[in-house]
Amino acid sequence: MTIPTIQFNFLEPLDLRDRNRLKKFLATLFKKEGKNLGELQYIFCSDDYLLEINRQYLNHDYYTDIITFDLSERGQPINAEIYISVDRVRENAREFGSSLRKEMQRVIFHGALHLCGYRDKTAAQEKEMRQMEEKYLTLYGIV
User: Disulfide engineering: 11 pairs with which of 30, 45, 126, 128, CB 3.0-4.6 Å?
Assistant: First the structure.
């Protein structure tokens, strides 16, 4: 079993508290989901930065809050990059009447859950994803 490497990279300012606790919790999330995590990079960026990635790599011409790239090789531990738009998460927090901290945690866990195999393309998948986000928000202590 490899010791996972989880890093947070900031292209945009963000007050992300308790980073070491969050890293440990993310490693636990992958264990609970039966996944072997190798390396995980979170990149916190702007709307425009993420829009360019969305256009270049996914041929999507719209803003999004998160893009997850699973770079893993078959049979190897998970190796991934997760790009999160601080602008979009801030806007979503306002829209949904949530705190920036809670919405950011939700999106951070959302990306991890995608890497664990959860999807959100259909209504049923989206419902399950929301339930899993809530489960891990509660376990992490954000209600």
Answer: 45
